[in-house]
């Protein structure tokens, strides 16, 4: 198993990670910053796991599945939190997290 | 400037990084391993810079341009080395590095 | 729980990650390269998980423990493989992986 | 040149990166969150560059010096911003950034 077997999951992880990073920095510019604290925190956590999962899949690690299981849980929590906010970056991030969670669940199965 | 302004360059960096990781681990399985040493080394270096560049762009850092300049140089060297080998993963990686270098050059300008 | 509560485990992860990276690139220079393939592969995997674990602990993620459990398993496998080789970088890396696994096991408990 | 030649600079980068991550998440818990926006942003940027610099040094990349030059600039800006705040995590981070900048300047020279 390698990059090409995992490609759709890797792509979902990388898109999710980049949108989490973008969401975190964009939240810092919002007027209602107090409400965005948990969103920023989860964005940082989620980006970390998504990037690690993409890397383990890309190099064909036997532990990629186990990490994708963790990553899916994280993405679900991040998607839920981002989904509470109306900012465009939060909505995009919430969608990307949801898609990533689905791919990671399948990959881990 | 943020994720959306940089999206094509971020996408090129992420694709390049994942294919560098894939190329490194795939090279380890090749029969002519002695010939692949420099390819593996540059793949590891290039993945590191591409991921860092994607992250600085995603969070809208003022230093993203300077890092993209470095990343472009790395991608050019990695593309050249990978381009010497006939393995499919090397050819894909060489192409992805070349495309990434072009995006990073434009972004840094 | 934050950086200071996890400091000894974070330090062990970061030391292990850096020595895995060092071991991977050093293995590429060894004469018996064919024998070092699995070592290089596991070094790359282990560095990825150790860095991710250190980051989740540093930002106080609720999923840090679960990732440390995975990281411990990876470190044990990498330690065992590195421990088969007499190169100084392999021995250092094997020791660092073993120490990191112990810290991660405790942290995950 | 490899890990051992760069060890003090790698250690400074890794300590700085972990304290930047810690500072970012700790800032999110502070009462005066509006004042901490730039600190959180620079912490995220600085952690990214410090981790990348540590990795390029650990694998002995020829581009490690150029990245350390960028990293030093980033650390100086992050140190200055963190130094404006009285929170313990900001003071620790500011000191770690300053030390890291010094090591990276020397390494890049």
TrEMBL record, chains A, B, C, D:
| Pfam assignment, any one | Csp
Its domain of life? Bacteria
InterPro entries named in the record: Csp_YhjQ (IPR005560), YHJQ-like (IPR044543)
PANTHER family attached to this UniProt entry = CYTOPLASMIC PROTEIN, CYTOPLASMIC PROTEIN-RELATED
Protein known as: Four-helix bundle copper-binding protein
Q: Which organism is it from?
A: Fluviicola chungangensis
């Amino acid at each position: 198993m390698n990059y090409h077997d995992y490609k759709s999951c890797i792509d979902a992880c990388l898109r999710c990670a980049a949108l989490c990073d973008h969401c975190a920095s964009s939240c810092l510019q919002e007027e209602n910053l107090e409400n965005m604290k948990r969103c920023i925190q989860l964005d940082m956590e989620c980006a970390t796991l998504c990037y690690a999962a993409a890397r383990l899949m890309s190099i064909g690690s036997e532990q990629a599945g186990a990490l994708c299981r963790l990553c899916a849980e994280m993405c679900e929590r991040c998607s839920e939190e981002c989904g509470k906010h109306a900012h465009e970056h939060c909505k995009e991030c919430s969608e990307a997290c949801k898609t990533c969670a689905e791919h990671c669940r399948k990959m881990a199965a």
